[in-house]
Amino acid sequence: MRSLLFLLLAPMGVLLAPNGALAQSTPYYLADGLEDFSDQQIRGTNPVFVTKIGPDSLIISTSAQAYEHASFYKKTSGETFYRRKQEWGTSMPNFIFADENVLMLVEERGSYLLFHKDRNTAAALLGAGDKTAVLRIKDSVRAVVVAINTGQRSKNDAAAAAQNKKIVTAYIRSLHSKRSDPTLVSDIRKWSQNATTTVYIVDADYYITRNYRGEVLNKNIPALIKYHLNGKCFVQWRAFGYESLGGGSFTKDLYTYNKQDYYLQATGAGGSLRLEPGVAYEIDCD
């Protein structure tokens, strides 16, 4: 059995490993922490209560009898810490490192709380002036959390980007212009400054924008462009149009407009994605 002294003097890289010996509804006493810990209710609770559920799950709460302020944590296979999975009441900390005597609750941004099962040991740690050993452990466990979460986010982002690419590729391959307007198409291609640009006008008619007096300000219509750039292919959409000159006449210069009440929903490849105006989305090249 590791002692607290060994735990606090452990070199960087030594982690607090979850242990199956945690008792049911065991009180843990505040031993250290930062005032900016996001969950101020648990920050102000001493002790907190831990209920162990099997070898890889636990509940931490502010009461031994009730769960008005409690969260369920589970340890994922291959990880040395518990992740918050459910909560009751106010949000609880994100990650828990635990052994038979110590709980360290860590937020990814670096704030933490340390609890010890022994009341006197916790009080001694809380009153100690030198926090070097505790902070060393905190930095070590936080580094593990950040590294794993960063890697997982990268995988998730890559998977989402790949799925979005499939959706938008399928969408553009089935898209046809709803309006024949050679002048507008030519103006959009000139605006894009890219000879590979293909234009899809996605509405049949122009939208007319008027001021509060009912005077026409401009006419505009959403259009999606597909183009090649640096060996890749992309699409994006905007509202294109012309400013009013009065009397039903419009400028020959092309303008783009923000349409806050309008968006394109790309569907295809078993999914759906809302396309934001002016954002380039990569697709498979034809």
Please characterize this protein's 3D structure.
The protein is of the alpha+beta class. It contains five helices and 17 strands. It starts with a helix and ends with a strand.
Secondary-structure blueprint of this entry?
Elements: H1 4-8, E1 26-33, H2 40-43, E2 48-53, E3 57-61, E4 70-75, E5 82-88, E6 95-98, E7 102-106, E8 112-116, H3 119-127, H4 132-173, H5 182-192, E9 198-201, E10 207-210, E11 216-229, E12 232-246, E13 249-250, E14 255-257, E15 264-268, E16 271-275, E17 281-283
Antiparallel strand pairs: 1-2, 1-8, 2-3, 3-4, 4-5, 5-6, 6-7, 7-8, 9-11, 10-11, 11-12, 12-13, 12-14, 12-17, 15-16
Helix content: 10-25%
Instruction: Supply the CATH class of the largest domain.
Output: Mainly Beta
Overall structural class, as computed from helix and strand content, comes to alpha+beta
- Which consecutive residue ranges, at least 5 long each, have pLDDT under 50? 1-23
The CATH architecture category of the largest domain equals Beta Barrel
Proportion of beta-strand residues: 35-45%
Count of separate structural domains: 2
Give the total of beta strands.
17
Question: Major sheet: size, sense and barrel closure?
Answer: 8 strands, antiparallel, barrel
Distance between the termini: 63 Å
CATH topology of the largest domain: Lipocalin
